[in-house]
Write a structure and sequence with these properties.
31% of the residues lie in helices and 24% in strands. The protein has 551 residues and is of the alpha/beta class. Helix 4 links the parallel strand 11 and strand 12. Helix 5 packs parallel to helix 6. The chain is globular and about 75 Å long.
Length: 551
Amino acid sequence: MAEALRIIPLGGLGEVGKNMTVFELGDERIVVDAGLAFPRDEHFGVDLVLPDFAHLVGRRVRAVVLTHAHEDHVGGLPYVLRELEVEEVIGTRLTLALVKSKLDEHGLASVTVLTEAEPGSAPLELGPFGVSFVRMAHSVPDSTAVVIETEAGRVLHTGDWKLDHTPVDGLKTDVGALAALGNRGVDLLLGDSTNAERPGMTGSERLVGEAFRQLIPLRTGRIVIASFASNIHRVQQAAEVAIAHGRKVAVVGRSMRKNMNIARSLGYVDLPDEMIVSPKEAMDLPRDEVLVLCTGSQGEPMSALTRIAYGDHQNVEVERGDTVIISAKPVPGNELRVHDSINRLSRLGAEVLHQEIAPVHVSGHACSEELRTLLSLVRPKAVMPIHGEYRMLAAHARLARDAGVPESAILLAENGSVVELTPDGARLVGHVEAGVTFVDGLGVGDVEDVALRDRRRLSEDGVLIVVTTVALTDGDGGEVAPPELIARGVGEDEELIGELRVEAERIVRELAGNGITEIKLLQEHIHDGIGQAVYQRTRRRPMILPVVIEV
């Protein structure tokens, strides 16, 4: 009898983000995706949230196979490669190019084997696994589904996808390959559930381009468009419309610039060099001759759009008569941050267009009718909904039931569930530990909750409380009082505390001199500046608590 294939999701179930799934056969294993999630407000001091991959520590991973280049699927890869023994990373051309740039930043590119795969090509033989790829349309080019063939059965992992009949690059979801796969037989389908609750079909990416063609020619001020940096076709469409109407394009935000440079060098984006200007040059042009493409569509605290909204960006500003287009949907948990940015931009006099009031965004995920289509094409013997909050997984399970999949063959799993696939079928058989791993600065540590992490941090490195007072004036800006430092558990080094007090005063004076008195920005700058100063002097990371009192 064939050995059972064990499928273990370590992230992405019951949540949106940090997608990671392990496939084990005997002592051999591969991993599909290695994503991250961004911290919520209650994750104070946490930079990134990763899956807990303790299950893989000390076990050789034959390959990490990537479905596409979104952060919730590849963002955790550098940390995985640092902690685990991984033989190679496999993905499509653009995915690997964007990943290589990420690995370069972590000093891992030269020691990591990157293997390029082409959808539709012969399966790669990875020990007992045969791995092949199917072209899928999504909101980043070169997205794929992954087919895993073993003696225990054939698995289709859809990745993120939708049926886009008019994609910008002309590369549609390969329904022919999916139908052929269904004819050969699919024993288990792991399917994207993000939009399973939503009826109908997801709109084509070209609908956003059409919206840009309607909106951009009518605007007379500067236009700022915020989008995910990986949504290359969207920023390409915006740039093409702007250039056609006499605007030059400035790209703002480190990840946006990096991705655009990679996409242009590989031929995924074709824009004339003379129409691309620096942010500083753009601000010297007439307002009706500028389009700014930037990051920050999720209201991230230090992103380009947030800094623009708070008047804290060194190059770009908006004022009355300008238009800001937020071409993205808030990821669950980011709604308040996005609304805060919208309110700030509106206060500056800009007209803000977003998906609730204008057709400036379409999802990259399949809605219920597309999921039904996939189920009818593939005709899986068993279905395991993945990639979504529990309500989304449950909605996908109902669609599978309606498509004729037996109730006993629909597996509503969670992170850490162990699913076994044999020629007799798929079933839930157990559970492994699968919490979260917090990334804080240079450290990657596994703790069960933020409170425990904070207590450990306080006990090891102490806490520094920085208290300052802002007195707002009738005009721009305000006066900032010299900060007071309260140290607990940091040590009795008065010279160090004195240096940090001077550094804190320098930071707040510099911000006040630039007219920046918004509490959130003051807190961010104080936290980052003092944290860096302490680390440079002591190589320790105490908790930094900036307290700004407005009077």
